[in-house]
């Protein structure tokens, strides 16, 4: 997860987030700019927090892996703001993305377990977790992380993809994405990239963490299809022959649908406080 302190309300964030992909593209190669434009779209999700007052204190923002929303938020904070980025892994593109965007100096990366955040009670105004729930291994961990977010922040904003397919393209995304959990477990012995949870289950987990839901909703993110994709080479590395054969067959079937056109499914969002 990633953290940010800033002083801006939602109406100020959105106009700045919209052109951010173009801002990055000027500084990078075409291939890398395309990747950055994709990542920057996640920053647009923040507008659904719908906060109507200026945040006056330092704010905590958990934004998922690979600087998906860290970089757009670092752009928003200006020269006086700083993003404190926290994650245990998935730092592969962090330096490349943030440096190429010219925003590395605004971001302070820390390797810290989100289940035990090193901050006092209500240190921050806002805690945000975007497209990161799926990486929390299991529901017990989700509740622990939500509890910590609620402890250190006045409000929590969570955004995550939903297991909903409104058309064949979204169904193709889900079929390809849903292989990831089993592939990672077969390769590494533990689950990752968990299946997307229904919005009602996310609400239930937040309530288990003693959070009170203030607002929630669903929207179409218009994100590229390849966020579901995992190369076939990963599956081919599975040592268990039976499991490898099974997953290769399922991967081939899913890929045939995916390559004909896939679309990211609807995304749910929640605002809560303790």
What tags apply to this protein structure?
four-stranded mixed beta sheet; 7 strands; alpha/beta; three-stranded mixed beta sheet; Rossmann fold
SSE blueprint:
Layout: E1 2-5, H1 10-17, H2 20-25, H3 30-40, H4 70-77, E2 82-86, H5 94-100, E3 107-110, E4 124-130, H6 139-152, E5 153-161, H7 168-177, H8 179-188, H9 199-208, E6 212-219, H10 232-236, H11 241-259, E7 267-273
Parallel strand pairs: 2-3, 4-5
Antiparallel strand pairs: 1-2, 5-7, 6-7
Helix pairs in contact: 7-11, 8-11
In short:
The chain is α/β, with parallel strands linked by helices and 274 residues long. It has eleven helices and seven strands.
Kindly describe this structure.
The structure is a single chain. This protein has 274 residues and is an alpha/beta fold. The chain has one domain: Vaccinia Virus protein VP39 (Rossmann fold), CATH 3.40.50. It has helices spanning 10-17, 20-25, 30-40, 70-77, 94-100, 139-152, 168-177, 179-188, 199-208, 232-236, 241-259, and strands at residues 2-5, 82-86, 107-110, 124-130, 153-161, 212-219, 267-273. The strands form two sheets. It has a four-stranded mixed sheet with strand order 4-5-7-6, covered by helices on one side. Strands 1-2-3 form a three-stranded mixed sheet, covered by helices on one side.
């Amino acid at each position: 997860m990633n953290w940010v302190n800033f002083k801006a309300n939602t109406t100020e964030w959105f106009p700045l987030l919209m052109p951010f992909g173009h801002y990055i593209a000027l500084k990078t190669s075409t291939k890398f700019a395309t990747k950055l434009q994709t990542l920057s779209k996640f920053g647009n999700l923040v507008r659904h927090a719908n906060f109507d007052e200026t945040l006056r204190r330092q704010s905590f923002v958990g934004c998922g892996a690979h600087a998906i929303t860290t970089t757009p938020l670092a752009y928003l904070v200006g020269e006086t703001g700083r993003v404190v980025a926290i994650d245990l892994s998935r730092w592969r593109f962090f330096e490349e993305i943030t440096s190429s965007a010219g925003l590395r100096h605004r971001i302070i990366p820390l390797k810290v377990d989100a289940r035990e955040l090193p901050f006092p009670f209500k240190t921050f105004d806002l805690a945000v977790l975007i497209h990161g729930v799926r990486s929390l291994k299991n529901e017990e961990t989700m509740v622990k992380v939500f509890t910590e977010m609620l402890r250190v922040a006045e409000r929590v904003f969570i955004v995550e993809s939903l297991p909903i397919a409104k058309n064949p393209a979204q169904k193709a995304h889900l079929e390809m994405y849903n292989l990831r959990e089993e592939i990672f477990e077969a390769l590494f012995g533990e689950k990752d990239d968990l299946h997307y949870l229904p919005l009602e289950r996310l609400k239930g987990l937040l309530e288990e963490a003693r959070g009170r839901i203030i607002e929630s909703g669903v929207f179409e993110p218009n994100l590229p299809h390849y966020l579901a994709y995992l190369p076939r080479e990963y599956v081919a590395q599975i040592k268990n022959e039976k499991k490898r054969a099974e997953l290769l067959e399922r991967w081939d079937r899913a890929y045939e649908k995916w390559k004909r056109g896939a679309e990211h499914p609807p995304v749910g969002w929640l605002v809560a406080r303790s």
